[in-house]
Predict the structure.
Amino acid sequence: MPRNVAQKLIADHLVSGTMTPGEEIGIRIDQTLTQDATGTLVMQELEALDLERTRADVSVQYVDHNLLQADERNAEDHAFLRSACRRYGLWYSKPGNGVSHPTHMQRFGVPGTSMVGSDSHTPAAGSLGMLAIGVGGLDVATAIAGEPLYVRMPEVWGVRLTGELPPWVSAKDVILEMLRRHTVSGAVNRIIEYHGPGVDTLSAMDRHVIANMGAELGATTTVFPSDDAVRRFLRTEGREQDFVEITADDGAEYDVTDEIDLSTLVPLIAKPSAPDNVVEVREVAGTPLGQAIIGSSANPGLRDFAIAAAMVRGRQTAGGVSFDINPTSREIFADLTKMGATVDLVSAGARIHQAGCMGCIGMGQAPAVGHNSLRTFPRNFPGRSGTPEDSVWLCSPETAAASALEGVITDPRDLGIEEPTLELPEQATVNPDMLEAPPEPEESRHVELTKGPNISSLPDFPPLPDRIEAPVLLKVGDDVSTDEISPAGAAALPYRSNVPALAEFTFTRIDPDYPARAQETAGGSGHVIVGGRNYGQGSSREHAAITPRHLGLRMVIAVSFARIHWQNLANFGILPLEFSDPEDYARIDADDTLVVEDLRRLLSEPDARLSVYNATQDRSYEVRHTLSQRQRDAVLAGGKIPLLAQSSAPVS
């Protein structure tokens, strides 16, 4: 039977289950990716698992998020991460070497392999024909330990591309068009596979932009074929020997279909404060701005910086506009400099920052209140920039550069100039010196973990009780993101390896008093959170599960969940339940006391229906879970780590 690319990749790595949408499957994992904002917790989990050495073919730890050394805490994290890499056999990418996703694509990405990453934008590697899935850190830790990844088999959504992008329209506009059509939850429990003649017109880095932001649609992952464009990319990186052709069979079918004629697209922009709040740039042209930033894993290629440099060459950016450039890897920064583009940018007034995520994760570059910030980033959730009352717009490098020149939001087609023709180098400036290879196993065994005062141990969580009677401490609406649950930014990020300290930031963007109120429940009954649709969208950070758990959260009842956060809740022993009748969401108030009984028996049954009694209102609601047996066992044990501790010896 003809297969599409996604089916081929899954079939090649399938270790359990069948490829029936909705059924749990186990996937063998070849590579793992961690970054410092989530990786410190992964390394603590490896310590808790008593791992001897990684069992994946390639495991890489990147330092790309916590790069501002305001005090000693980030430096402590980096020292801890480096020691953990040496202890457990991981590659270590030093601070400033580059953002994990494009750097991994340059140095380690191999068509046909599978990868999990503790970053929701890990699917960017699908641009090379990889099966790359973003998950919580604990799922990465167990993959490093040699365990399969267990997920529900997604539907495969075939998006056929035809035509060719017109002048001034680029890959960012393709994914913004997808968001405009389908919203931030349009691809939940789906793999997006791009195919058709239009794919041939996109470079590997163009595809990276599109695959990266499939996470904003809620997709399990995104895949492209591995074809001549991938071969050219690997040749540029000096790794053509790693090329493997992977294309869909003739007659391959898809569970869901869509089509985009690239030639009909126009410059698009996502208005504050959601990635799917997309309009044509001309609809908002003339809106003043105070900042324009180019960079991040959502626009990481040399071409994305070079086009901006060519646009501003010989010109000066508008007064009052901060034009910021965040190179995404040292390699790209070097090539940009060799081209003379760095001089063009600096001469035009650009501020050049180190290679890293920077403002994308709220680590510096926070905008002023009341001033619009245009960014080529993947997300514009409220407050993610580091400014609580921000106004962040998402756009292409062309739109960002045009707007920086004019001082107002500007469609690049209206600059009155022709789109520059770029001559990019055929050979990249490959310099692996900031990648530290793991030591040999015998040396690794003697490495001690370096733990500063800010490195805590993982909390111990008790098993799920048979009866929960607890208050609804917080009721939230639709599309609550993990940024709102566990904020990013320069204030919170340095505590990523210190769960008790990080817990003080939990939900503070929604309710500043939540940590104090929650702490009062932690030693007793615990508490419940009620959520709307797509609860927990966005980042894969498992801190959004572990810090509320530390503060006493025992159960979340929502209309629906985002995939990664739903899994993270189960991994840390929090019971995720969905309303059988979504209208019941409106029938529960904050501070109501909810009661669920006989949990241990009910959770022994697949897809069980449970009754939640509202003691405050004297009414009941039917709820359900969709947890697999493996997840139910973890919830009952108090989390995945206690479950593994019950059932296995140290991982060698």
Notes: Residues 72-88 form the longest helix (17 residues). The two ends are 40 Å apart (CA to CA). The first strand starts at residue 14 and ends at 16.
